[in-house]
Structures are given as C-alpha cells and as structure tokens.
Amino acid sequence: MKKYALVGAGSRAFHMFAEPIVKELRQHAALVGVYDTNLLRAERLSKDCGGIPVFRTFEEMLSRSGADRIIVASVDYTHDEYIIRSMEAGFDVISEKPMTTDHRKCKAVLEAERRTGRRVTVTFNARFISYTSRIKELLKQQAIGRILSVDMEWMLDTSHGADYFRRWHRYLDKSGGLLVHKSTHHFDLINWWLEEDPIEVYAFGDLRFYGPTREQRGERCLACAYKTSCEFYLDLEQDAFFDSYYRQAESADGYYRDGCVFAGDIDIYDTMSVNVRYSRGTLLTYSLNAHSPYEGWKLSINGSEGRIEARQFTSGLEKDVPESTLSLFNRKGEEITYRMAKNTGFHGGADEALRRMLFAGDRPDPLGHMADSRAGAMSLLIGDAANISIAGKRPVRLQELIGLDGERV
Ligand SMILES: NC(=O)c1ccc[n+]([C@@H]2O[C@H](COP(=O)([O-])OP(=O)(O)OC[C@H]3O[C@@H](n4cnc5c(N)ncnc54)[C@H](O)[C@@H]3O)[C@@H](O)[C@H]2O)c1
Fold it and tell me: CB-hemisphere CA count at 13 Å for 237?
C-alpha cells in the first residue's frame, strides 16, 4: 500500500483526494499528511479525514510524514514550487491540472524531472469521461482517416463560469487565466486525441461580461449592498462546505471565496478564441466563453474519410438527457450514431475512474489515459502561448517559449 501526503486543503484536495482515499480507497492507499498555508483549512480537512497529521511546513511534511508520493492540489501558481521541491527530495508527484501556469515554470518542472529522475503525473480527469474516451477509440481506429482539422466550442455557464471570477483564478499570475487554468483540460483532450504536437498559436481574448462592466458592485457577497438584487450573490453561510472550509478559515489568511465577479482588478478574459497549428498540419479552432446560459461543449473533427460530431451539456435543457450521442459521417453519405449512457458521479464519473487507475492500480490503460509531464506541458503551453499572443497581438510558436530545437517541444 502506497502512502500519500497532500499539499492544499481546499475543495479539490478534499473531494478528489483526501476523502476518497480515507474512505473508498483505504485498502489501496493511505493519507499520511496534509499541508496548506491556511492552517485552519488543513485542520478542518484533517478532522474530516480521521485526524491525518497536519504539518506546519511543507519541508516537515516531506521529511516526517513517511509518504511515498506527494499530491499537489494547492492553487495553480504554487504547483511548480511543490512539484520541484518534492522531486528534489526524492518523491514522485501527482499534480492537479494545470501542471503550472506559464512556460518558465513549465521549463523548470521539466528540467527538475530530468535532473532528479522522478516522475510527474498530471490528473487530467476529462480524459476519463467515457464519452471522451470513445472519441479517442474511434480516432485510434482511424474511423475518419487522417485528421485534418478540429473545431471545439466550450461554454461555461454563469454559475460555474462566474466562480472563476470570485477568487484567485481571476488573476493571470495566479491561474494563467482561463486559457491555462480551464483550457488545459480541453487542449489536453485534443492533444491526446490527435497524438500530434501543437506548434503555433494565435489568439484573441477579452473581458466583456465580468470585471468592471457594471456600476452596482461590492468587494464581496457577504457584505454587499446589492446582495438581494445581484444574480451572482453567493451565500457562503448557506453551504456547509463553503462555510466550514472557507468562511470559518478566513481569519488565517484573508482568502474569501465570494469576491465580487465585477471587481475592477480582474485581469483574466471571459471571452476567448484560439487557433492552433499542429505538427502534422491539423488546424484547431477553439473558443471558450465563461458566461453562457448553459454549460457544455461542441466538437467536430474533420478527417480524410469523414467527420465526427460530438456535444455534451452539463447544465441547461439537455443536462438531464439520459444518453449522449456521437455522430460519424462517412464518405458514403452515411451517418453512424453512437449512443452512450451518461455517467453519473462527479465530472461524469471521471474522477472515480481516474482514482481507481491511479491509487488502486487495478485498471489497464490501453488508451493511455494517465497523463505525464509532457502532456501537462503541451496543454498549458498552448494556453500560455495564447496569452502571449493576445497581449502581443502576434502568432506565438511553442518552440520560442520552451527553447528546444526542432519542431518538437
Ligand atoms: N481536475 C479538476 O477537475 C479540478 C477541479 C477543481 C480544481 N482543480 C485544481 O485543484 C487545485 C485546487 O483548486 P481548488 O478549487 O481546491 O482551490 P481552493 O482555493 O479551494 O484550494 C486551494 C488551496 O491552496 C491553498 N494555498 C494557497 N496558497 C498556498 C501555498 N503557497 N501553499 C500551500 N497551499 C496554498 C489555499 O489555502 C487553499 O486551501 C487547483 O490547481 C485547481 O486547478 C482541478
């Protein structure tokens, strides 16, 4: 049985790792420590997970917890530091996405991995949704021949999407913006499906819906003068988890989870459009908006022998449709429809499937679901290149960011 220590004690750390390890996976894995700069939150998580040891410093956790591996689930801009320090101390690392937030940090992680001989696994749970896996299978089977182009449209609704504008995600230097923080999932899916490397990126982005777009705004919902009229009002006290993990832990570091989505200092985009050219010539057209009336995505993949069309929705009218469909159009004028029951469970059952493979090790991996540092790098580098492209109004080659020779990064 492997022993794990966890850095970060927020929502993802608790729901994805701590609670499932101590409850569902205790025959396969043990949690032997937690560290978070917010001691109150770490203590809360410890209490909810059978009293696992709370460490005052990360160094102490590395040297005294007895862990075999470190799980990094802290805020995005701290991942690089914890990944590198863990590897330098001799540990393999499991990191939440994004592996890190920009190309400099990415390069440092890849160099540390090479130097130490340790290994980083990135938990791209979106690969584990059975629907996205079916697309991978079809492409592996060459169902539409050679892939020529991909269009992906991703919509976040005003519940999920707005949440990124309440707290640390809303600062480019903390999250890399949504093109890194969120799109790393989407770019990873596309990279995984295509088995091609991204080469060049051109992007546009703007803040058009959140940020200082309205006069009636406050600092945070809890103390806001517009709480009875604002549709974005979040009542932390009404949610037991938010109340205990965030509101009651505010005194430790002043991190409040209900910042105003219309704050003047938000510097990320809510409306984005990206073009990517891949190493075998595939062209990607991608868009993300964080203010949609419903949440989901639409995809089409054009190949030499046909076309795949896919769509999934997680809120709005189609949310409760019991099955997902995938259409394949071939050159004989036929449409083949694949029907799949929608998975239940968090993130469409993907979190559980990922945990089984990662911690119980009882699932084979013929399609290569488990992602390494290279996949972590490739997906975040598209987002980082897009950010640079938007700021500089120019195309950006990934090679110029990571500084390696040749077309391959
Ligand atoms: N794969 C997914 O579907 C998914 C979903 C949600 C979040 N995530 C990822 O999980 C991670 C955590 O996200 P979250 O939603 O739980 O955020 P959160 O804000 O709820 O939790 C982050 C935690 O990091 C702690 N922290 C801040 N600075 C720190 C530092 N310097 N050292 C140690 N700890 C520090 C905070 O106190 C907080 O407890 C992020 O990387 C996020 O991208 C992944």
Answer: 3
CATH hierarchy code of domain 126-210+266-402: 3.30.360.10
Residues lining ligand 1, judged by CB closer than 6 Å? 7-13, 36-38, 41, 73-76, 78, 96-97, 123, 125, 181, 255, 347
Q: Where in the chain is the domain with CATH 3.40.50.720?
A: 2-125
Q: Regarding the domain with residue range 2-125, which homologous superfamily does it belong to in the CATH classification?
A: NAD(P)-binding Rossmann-like Domain (3.40.50.720)
User: Model confidence over 25-76: pLDDT tens digits?
Assistant: 999 999 999 999 999 999 999 999 999 999 999 999 999 999 999 999 999 9
| pLDDT one-digit tens code per residue, 147-199 | 999 999 999 999 999 999 999 999 999 999 999 999 999 999 999 999 999 99
Domain with CATH 3.30.360.10 in the chain: 126-210+266-402
DSSP H stretches of helix in 123-239: 130-140, 160-163, 172-175, 178-181, 183-194
Q: What is the CA radius of gyration of the chain?
A: 21
Nearest CA to ligand 1 atom 9: 96
